[in-house]
């Protein structure tokens, strides 16, 4: 168990909770203990989205090991928490709080089925010796059901609740969705809102992944020139416009390729089989690529079972990419081929976003989540509520807690609790939505003196907006934004020695 606070904000909130603890009743105090425990644990990221959108596949890709069961089976219907542990171990946690060790399958995955009544199981805990998990705890959820399967509606309602609870308990959300033929932007937005219900998801703590972009026919996307990744970028851009400001970005991805490349599933035998396929004449090859059925049944020297195996690991797009890589470089090694598949998967982009949004800001995200929990825990008792309120106001008044205020302002804007003219809302999102000053100012790549001047100008503007043309709610946000610009200005001046 690694336990350390993510940074100064989490430390300040931990002190606040410890100070308040003796002043609240036993039930609230127990809740506070849980808040303290979570504050010192890694950031909790829930992977949410519909069933079969590729959540478990993505979890495996991120962890770099095929450990989460993919497809069907009881365990794909349970919440699994993947966290760092010195020894690899799976525990089945019962609804009664009992814990039982579950052996891994021979191939190192969590067994798809349990030999106990699933109704008695709360969730699974998977402890893995894995560097990624030192900083992130990843929560795989069963997911929301598809809209059109009435026959399984009951199960799906239960699953929805299970997934919602897991999401509600998390501090950040990775929302996985796919582009289905009928899905329009509104439907995606509804599904996302449902997935994140009960939790303030916003650009600070939510990232969306447009998965399975290999299954999108590029010719169905105007402007794609028949290119899968160009089509993916266009669609992801549209979804980002529809989903904002609720997510920090929409990243296109082929989870299956990422999983196969990162988990060791892609072997040198697979590379050999692809080399044999690369020998086929162009006409046969184009025919085989027309469908999964044709790919496995077409007359060819590579055994049909081998082709099915490749299909399961790479699907048609990945197979095509690999064969093209072999044509381009006939001597390519299995390792280089694996790397090419990884590059074609989009995983690097997802990782970079995770680092930039979640890991870099874990301190603020965790501190804000803890304050929200503490507020909720004390809500039932007027005395406790007042004490917690006063303590939080005092904390937020301190200069070092300014980032928390900014996150709070951001949440007020993204949840429409405070409405702002669109250009101003955009500006608040920009200032609060990044940890890098040039990005906050919207002046990436500009010279320092421009940044300094702009920060000062905007600080002044927001101060007068706070005093003059604003409603009381807008005014509160405006004060926070003014202060953010002022602190940026100070920092820039300090850096330039002026
Ligand atoms: N073609 C393709 N298939 C994928 C991709 N990602 C996942 N899959 C497949 O989709 C199915 C469902 O994936 P799974 O991770 O179990 O979905 P979950 O229910 O959201 O956890 C599996 O057969 C995966 O191999 C992808 O990017 N492309
Ligand atoms: Mg799953």
Automatic annotation (TrEMBL):
> Which BP terms does GO give this entry?
ribosomal small subunit assembly
Which residues does the UniProt record annotate as the domain Dynamin N-terminal? 45-191
Q: Which Gene3D superfamilies match?
A: P-loop containing nucleotide triphosphate hydrolases
User: Domain of life, per the record?
Assistant: Bacteria
Q: Name one GO molecular function term.
A: GTP binding
- A Pfam family this protein belongs to? Dynamin_N
InterPro entries named among the record's database cross-references: Dynamin_N, GTPase_Era-like, P-loop_NTPase
Which PANTHER family would you find in this protein's record? Answer: GTPASE ERA (PTHR42698), GTPASE ERA, MITOCHONDRIAL (PTHR42698:SF1)
The molecule here is called GTPase SAR1 family protein
Q: What is the lineage of its organism?
A: Bacteria, Bacillati, Actinomycetota, Actinomycetes, Pseudonocardiales
